[in-house]
Amino acid sequence: MIDTAQATRHFVERFGEPPQWVVRAPGRVNLIGEHTDYNDGFVMPLAIDRAVWIALRRRPDRRVVVHSIDFRDEGEFALDELRPSEKRWLEYIKGVAWSLADDGLPLSGWEGIVAGDVPAGAGLSSSAALEVAAARAFASVAAIGWDAKAMAVRCQRAENRWVGMNCGIMDQMISACGRAGHAVLIDCRSLELSPAPLPEDVRVAVLDTGTRRGLVDSQYNARRADCEAACATLGVKALRDATLELLGDHRRELSETVYRRARHVISENERTARAAEAMRRGDFGALGPMLRESHRSLRDDYEVSSPALNAIVDAAVEHPACLGARMTGAGFGGCAVALVRSEAMDDFARRTAVRYREQTGFDAVVHVCRATDGAAVEQALNDAPA
User: Fold this and answer.
1) Is 171 considered catalytic here?
2) Contact 54, 137 (CB under 8 A)
């Protein structure tokens, strides 16, 4: 696990002195509400204790120089000449610079190191964590006031328009606005945030299948196009505005594929709202079946699961201490999420990993996660504004 001390040590090894700032932005796991964010719907993620860290110092010029510990690579760019490059990881940082500048915010040059422990490609939003950490870095260097919601929107725009991934707002919003000990219900239209507490006797387990997908190269954008086609037929701005009854009225006008895509999104929005209500009243027994319903819908209607994801969900729900489990993230590989009674977590992790290996031959990694606060300046020298 990376922390402030390790990020500082990496910086000192690279630059010979302590950084002026160390910033952190967490990854996330989404309890429920999948592929609803870009349909103006509801999601309920939590920021997790896996994060991207940037240790940095100001430069006297308008260049950004970044060394990635994870990729063992270095990249740089001029703030006055932002152009795409071949370094994929660097484009997320460059895209944030472009988005901030597009809003007229001042930018200053900096140099630093990036290190993280959010598994890439696992569906835990390592890219959003990098974007939000970069926004925190740019804000620190240029003394830009930190408006978490506004920065999340700017980071989403960077991923949409610079990186080329049509993601919704969820990942950047929870990385910027997470709350310790809580999941957060996000209304992806109004950006209203409603924290929902996680009890001490229930733990969140992230089940990494060990399989990966490239999000931009996946069928994510095709799913979004299906949703837009459904909206055009139903006469709504977004599927958030549709009901299952309205969808049924127009079934003959839709292809079978588009109908099933829309059915998932509409029913998932309803499940997410019900799940938030269950969490507020502490009814985690009611929440578990909703997770299982969500997985079936993602598997059968939205078709974004995979054999590995199905196998690890099946292995998880076999354990008597598991309240519910489902795939999480964009799909096609990566992770599932499970709610597990705390006292049985060790046994759950062991038995689930064994059962999954029996079924697939793959080794699973089970991460027991805490819900953490969103992006923050973790360390600033006395002469460096936070």
Assistant:
1) yes
2) yes
Q: Which two tokens stand for residue 317?
A: 């729900």
What tens digit of pLDDT does each residue of 140-169 get?
A: 999 999 999 999 999 999 999 999 887 889
Among 224, 115, 100, which Cα is nearest to 162's?
Answer: 100
Contact (Cβ atoms closer than 8 angstroms) between residue 233 and residue 250? yes
Q: What is the 3-state secondary structure (H, E, C) of 127-178?
A: HHHHHHHHHHHHHHHHCCCCCHHHHHHHHHHHHHHHHCCCCCCHHHHHHHHC
Task: State both tokens at 107.
Answer: 């930018």
> CB neighbours of 298 closer than 8 A, spacing ≥ 6?
34, 35, 264, 304, 305, 326, 327, 331
Task: Name which of 111-115, 200-204, 319-323 the model is least confident about.
Answer: 200-204
Distance CA 109, CA 141 (A): 8
Q: Which two tokens stand for residue 27?
A: 């990854």
Amino acid at 210: G
Catalytic residue among 40, 117, 171, 301, which?
Answer: 171
Residues whose CB is less than 8 angstroms from the CB of residue 35 and which lie 6 or more positions away in sequence, other chains included: 223, 264, 265, 268, 298, 302, 304, 330
Q: Which residues contact 284 (CB under 8 A, 6 or more apart)?
A: 199, 202, 278, 323, 339
| DSSP-derived secondary structure for 51-90 | EEEEEEEE-SSSEEEEEETTTTEEEEEETTS----S-HHH
